[in-house]
Amino acid sequence: MPVAPEVPPRRVHVTEVGLRDGLQNEPVVLATEQKLALARALIAAGVREFEVTSFVSPRAVPALADAAELVAALRDTPGLHLSALVPNPRGAERALAAGVDSVVLFVSASESHNAKNVNRSVEASLAGFERVARLLEGSGVALRGAIATAFGCPFEGNVPVQAVGGIARRFAELGATHLSLGDTTGMATPPLVAERVHHLRGAVPDLPLTLHFHNTRGIGLANVMQGLALGVERYESSIGGLGGCPFAPGASGNIASEDLAYLLEEMGIDTGLELDGLIGAARLAGELMGRPLPAQVSRAGPRLALAECAAVPTARG
Amino acid sequence: MPVAPEVPPRRVHVTEVGLRDGLQNEPVVLATEQKLALARALIAAGVREFEVTSFVSPRAVPALADAAELVAALRDTPGLHLSALVPNPRGAERALAAGVDSVVLFVSASESHNAKNVNRSVEASLAGFERVARLLEGSGVALRGAIATAFGCPFEGNVPVQAVGGIARRFAELGATHLSLGDTTGMATPPLVAERVHHLRGAVPDLPLTLHFHNTRGIGLANVMQGLALGVERYESSIGGLGGCPFAPGASGNIASEDLAYLLEEMGIDTGLELDGLIGAARLAGELMGRPLPAQVSRAGPRLALAECAAVPTARG
């Protein structure tokens, strides 16, 4: 399938998922105050949309045990949209009590990943979502859908686009306001992006699509280019490229927010993000995690951060 | 400038530059036998075009002091195209004597980078090329042109497209058969790629264009996507992402051959390259350099290298 001939959007919405997807797989567990310092740096750089945490069992994901405290602390900052993953009605109740703007319900498009992730069938996950949807009625809190392994499953391989479309329709029936396609282990490719975006625009034409890529195989931003060529306006990324994958040791995590923001800025696409601020936040994230993060712009500096010209020739071509 | 609406090519030519651009900036100097082991692994993976070395002063670039030996050793393998950089007529004589298929003449599009690199003005470099062109007459060895800092200069910043076009015309007048645009310190962006490709197609319509990107700011393959959308059929890359930049410490080097090959293969574009073989070569390169290389596919494995599905749920969304 060729790169599509459409015109890229003028404005792109970037949701920062570093505090959730970025941190849940990192060996270092940050204190709430450290997460807040990172969030404040991101807010100063223009970030307004955060997938801020996940209301899962603290035993399953200790790094996110402070979900309610984190939401409460960020609630003081005006103008933010805070979303949080919830795996079940109990998590949704906790998220509502904490004061999120939207809850994200997630299910994998492949049975084996869903079983590994939440220990139930895809159908059982979807049935559980109906109880969450009823909980949200009248609360003013939006429901968002996220489909993991939407571009491939690390256990099963290719995932039929119809499986993704079928789940998307269920989310639409539940009243979801957004749908995110998760490239959980970095298996998305430009042709798969095009195929899935076209299919979903047919299946759920009223549901805005968000693309959530991992850079596991180095082509995360190539997939963004394909998304832009198709006119997709919403992307998720993680500051510094925080995160990883428990099934692919050594692999990179989410696409990095500062690399994405750099690409979009250079393409003349408005994001509301400020690159120098993101680079500062990425450096803070690296310090907090105690390791170099995979993102590039934060290491190399912005495009026009000029070097000194010393006099020694190098003849390097 | 929007992503162009053209159809990507069905076939792409990838020139492996790891032995030249990749090694010249690495702190570890490989023995000729180690380079040959890497070259053999690459040949086994389908690589047929190598920018194999540079006939520069061994004092300036000790890592490439074995230029003649390396070319002589690879000459025994049929079906290869071996090119080498030459900075001056003396280098061209050495390259001719060694038996290369083409010599690559290089000049920067910005004065300060050219001064830093070869200690002369752009005009003085171009004048010197005429002597090399005369040397090559009747030799059967092709002349290729390479323009460094073609998308920006680390000392001067933006580089006018007219500077690139003017040099390109000089290369065309010299009888060059190919022209490579070097993104020396990773300053290329999709709009700059589109601008430069369009301009050069007007300025030198008969000169096939090669795009040579560095992944310094993480968007190397996004730039390839733009090149593909414009129908550009020739790219240069480095196995494992070998290489770096003396002006941007910690920055990534060339785009990685295996990540590029993975992207192209997944897009249904024929390269003649075999991904598993490239991954093996990249791992060998990492062992030889004694450090993890920045490429992703060689760490994460191919897309459908499936994981085992253990029973413990992770609830990671």
UniProtKB/TrEMBL annotation, chains A, B:
The keyword Coiled coil does not apply. One of its GO terms (molecular function) is lyase activity. Signal peptide: none annotated. PROSITE patterns: AIPM_HOMOCIT_SYNTH_1, PYR_CT. Residues 12-279 form the Pyruvate carboxyltransferase domain. It comes from the Bacteria. Keywords: Lyase, Metal-binding, Transferase. InterPro entries: AIPM/Hcit_synth_CS, Aldolase_TIM, HMGL, PYR_CT. The keyword Magnesium does not apply. Belongs to the alpha-IPM synthase/homocitrate synthase family. This is Hydroxymethylglutaryl-CoA lyase. The lineage of its organism: Bacteria, Pseudomonadati, Pseudomonadota, Gammaproteobacteria, Oceanospirillales.
